[in-house]
Specification:
It contains 23 helices and no strands. By secondary structure, the chain is mostly helical. It has a domain of 227 residues.
Length: 445
């Protein structure tokens, strides 16, 4: 990919080698887990610029400001909405629907997360669902980690089903000219199967062991969800703004709006309504409180990570790996599809899937003449989407939703360690890719 920037690395060293070394060191320290990941990522970004792999102007090009704006806007919306009692209401309602059984709640929240992620983006979904989850587990006095882990997986699985559910799909849809209906028709069937497998695996791993006391369950069943609403006016305002934002996400393409614009616009409107109605004389205090609820650790980790990964992209590593992948297929469509599926899954678990997908798209386009034209290579787009989106579940840094959940969990006293997550997640991710492999074999090859 031509970036128009020529790295000028110290002592004339190979930019690919140097940028890859910085990436490996950054990830190694994140895995070591002794330093805050935001500090590590920002230091890695600074090193990438200092050694000459990037300059400051090029580094800023690597930051996906759409993701940053989307995250920040939705965190603000959730912060304000939470004050109305909305999420406490949902927590009580969900727990009572599952008869306050921890295993049933685990299943219910996974299904809810997957469905919401198909129509929202997966980051927005976990921002809405995780506070509900934390409220539920505190009432039942059960471990939060299994629920949050399961919701990470469910968000990435559900997001794979539609054009708007996951950033890689947005890239593929835009650059390959694929619409919302195409994603639903081709990906939703296999996602249903993958989600069913996910429910079984999570149940066998944790669901059977989750227990609460009868007293705790009786307490939850006896609660009145309506009493959790602390501010009915703010609730109405929050629901109205969130509803408009959700519709905006669904209609973003025909409206020619980016998700960040919709999220930040919605956040600004809700902040205006909140301060106008309730805090006219102490707006600064209230705005400070709202901004204080934003997960800045997660935001700045993304900023640093985007720059580090962009350095590797500019250095040529991603293009080299993608070219080798294309060459290894030997001109066979099925082989190409399987290679793209599995390589995308493994690499997306290690390197953020957005720049990888952006690199792969022009390379897959270039394969069209060899396979009979753009229509003939449609299966390759679905392989890329399934591999990149599902592969993001493999590690804590594989997808935006993973890190968002980890940030919220840490602030609520729930440790979300890189190694622990990977030991559980990577094998489960491979199962989902195996199911996807069978699906594309049966349907396309």
């Amino acid at each position: 990919m031509d970036h128009g920037f020529v790295p000028n690395v110290w002592f004339g060293l190979d930019p690919m080698v140097v940028s890859t070394a910085v990436l490996v060191m950054t990830y190694a320290v994140v895995i070591w887990d002794k330093l805050n990941r935001a500090i590590v990522a920002l230091l890695g970004a600074a090193v990438m610029i200092l050694v000459g792999a990037l300059d400051q102007h090029e580094a800023l090009k690597g930051v996906d400001w759409n993701t940053i704006g989307l995250l920040t806007g939705m965190m603000i919306l959730v912060s304000i909405s939470r004050r109305s009692g909305m999420f406490q209401y949902l927590a009580i309602w969900a727990a009572k629907k599952a008869k306050a059984h921890p295993g049933g709640i685990l299943i219910l929240l996974q299904i809810t997360t997957a469905v919401l992620s198909a129509f929202l983006d997966n980051v927005t979904t976990v921002l809405l669902v995780v506070p509900v989850t934390i409220a539920i587990v505190r009432e039942l006095d059960v471990p939060a980690y299994p629920y949050l882990f399961a919701e990470v997986f469910a968000s990435n699985i559900g997001g794979t089903a539609t054009l708007i559910g996951d950033p890689p799909n947005i890239l593929i849809g835009s650059l390959a000219g694929l619409d919302f209906n195409a994603f639903v028709v081709h990906l939703a069937p296999v996602i249903v199967v993958v989600m069913a497998a996910q429910l079984v695996m999570i149940h066998l791993l944790w669901g059977r062991e989750l227990k609460s006391t009868p007293a705790r369950q009786a307490l939850v069943m006896g609660m009145d969800e309506r009493s959790a609403i602390e501010d009915p006016v703010l609730l109405e305002q929050s629901l109205a703004v969130l509803g408009i934002v959700i519709v905006g996400f669904v209609l973003a393409r025909p409206l020619h709006l980016e998700p960040a614009t919709i999220a930040m616009g919605g956040a600004a409107v809700l902040m205006l309504l909140d301060n106008w109605q309730h805090h006219a004389e102490r707006q600064s205090e209230n705005v400070h409180k709202t901004f204080g609820d934003v997960e800045w650790i997660t935001i700045f980790f993304f900023v640093g990570l985007f720059i580090v990964v962009h350095g590797v992209e500019v250095g040529g590593l991603l293009a080299l790996l993608a070219n080798k992948l294309v060459a290894a297929t030997g001109g066979d469509m099925a082989t190409a599809g399987y290679a793209i599926l599995w390589a995308s899954a493994v690499l997306s678990a290690i390197v953020d899937n957005i720049p990888f997908v952006a690199t792969m798209i022009p390379l897959i386009k270039s394969m069209a003449p060899a396979y009979g034209g753009p229509d003939a290579i449609l299966p390759l787009w679905w392989c890329l989407s399934l591999g990149a989106c599902l592969g993001g579940n493999g590690t804590l840094i594989g997808a935006s939703a993973n890190l968002t959940v980890a940030g919220i969990a840490d602030r609520n006293g729930v440790p979300f360690r890189f190694v622990t997550y990977t030991l559980y997640a990577f094998p489960m991710m491979l199962v989902s890719i195996a199911i996807a492999h069978v699906y594309v074999w049966l349907r396309y090859f």
